[in-house]
Design a protein that fits this description.
Blueprint (H helix, E strand, L loop, with lengths): L3 E8 L2 E9 L6 E8 L1 H5 L4 E8 L6 H7 L3 H7 L2 E5 L39 H17 L6 E12 L2 H12 L8 E5 L9 H11 L11 H7 L8 E6 L5 H5 L1 H8 L8 E6 L6 H18 L4
The structure holds glutathione (GSH).
Protein name: S-formylglutathione hydrolase
Family: Belongs to the esterase D family.
Function: Serine hydrolase involved in the detoxification of formaldehyde.
């Protein structure tokens, strides 16, 4: 269903659009923020690539829009940004029975749930990678003189749970080269091996671990062939309280050993940085440049 414009905010050289729509996949109203860079307004008849940013646990579309400082980078290179929500929410949406922030509302892990009671609303994989781009494309079709490219020349990135979501989707769709570029900030790198991931996969996908593999970057990296010289960029703060227990990027590196991704994952351990948006925003310029290159903008 089409979007309602909640707010249009001038930001840097462009505009942040706060939108909401009713999703068929989640059966709920969903919010999404879209940043339109200055090029969208000043250059005619050109196609603007889109970078999808998936946020982490406890987030809404607002956190990254307000604190990641992506907007100046989007203006610098000429890409748009989409900041989706982290889960369905609202009346009737089931949450974590334990009331914890690592599962349920704001913690969908971007999968299509197969288990009750989550199956009905938690269809976030299909929402993010299919319904949302189709709906956005439709909505923006006749709005400006520039075309926003939500399907072809696109990149994906994210933080923590969203870093997992980015890695997972990039690898899952790698054969068809859906996403031209992937990076992650402090991602949950091998969810089947850590408590956050095991709880999420168990709850949404069931206890049978075989069913987790098709989402888990730790497995996908072994079953997906890197056909070019594609690289994945990761930053991880060494002062991040979740680094050693939940994120474990070294496990992904280990899993890539001897595969076509060996040496293609650039894991940057950055001294002292924590898990917050002070960390994310510090490395956004490097990630922006990485995506801009892969999207042919520089
Ligand atoms: N501080 C959070 C812990 C979870 C957390 O650090 N979430 C990260 C993503 S995994 C985040 O982006 N939080 C929101 C923010 O920093 O704006 C809480 O206790 O609620």
């Amino acid at each position: 269903m089409t979007f309602q414009i909640k707010q249009e905010i001038a930001s840097c050289g462009g505009k942040l659009m706060k939108l909401s729509h009713t999703s068929k996949q989640t059966g709920t109203d969903m919010e999404v923020n879209v940043y339109l860079p200055k090029q969208y307004f000043h250059k005619q008849d050109q196609s603007i690539p889109v970078v999808y940013y998936l946020s982490g646990l406890t987030c809404t579309p607002q956190n990254a829009s307000e604190k990641a400082f992506w907007q100046p980078q989007a203006d610098k290179f000429g890409f748009a940004l989409v900041f989706p929500d982290t889960s369905p929410r609202g009346e009737g949406v089931p949450d974590d029975p334990e009331g914890s922030w690592d599962f349920g509302i704001s913690a969908s892990f971007y999968v299509d749930a197969t288990q009750e009671p989550y199956r009905k609303n938690y269809q976030m994989f299909s929402y993010i990678h299919d319904e949302l781009p189709r709906e956005l494309s439709h909505f923006f079709e006749n709005r400006g003189s520039s075309k926003l490219d939500f399907f072809e020349n696109i990149a994906i990135t994210g933080h923590s749970m969203g870093g997992f979501g980015a890695l997972s989707a990039y690898l899952k769709f790698y054969a068809e080269r859906k996403y031209k570029s992937c990076s992650a900030f402090a991602p949950v790198s091998f969810p089947s091996k850590v408590q956050w991931g095991r709880k999420a996969f168990g709850g949404y996908l069931g206890q049978e671990e075989e069913g987790w593999k098709s989402y888990d970057p730790g497995h996908l990296i072994k079953t997906t062939t890197n056909i070019g010289d594609d690289r994945i960029l990761i930053h991880q703060g060494t002062g991040d309280p979740f680094y050693k227990e939940q994120l474990k990027p070294e496990l992904l590196l280990e899993a890539s050993k001897g595969t076509s991704w060996d040496g293609k994952i650039s894991l940057n351990l950055v001294e002292g940085f924590d898990h917050s948006y002070f960390f994310v925003s510090t490395f956004v310029p490097e990630h922006a440049k990485f995506h801009a290159k892969n999207l042919g903008l520089i």
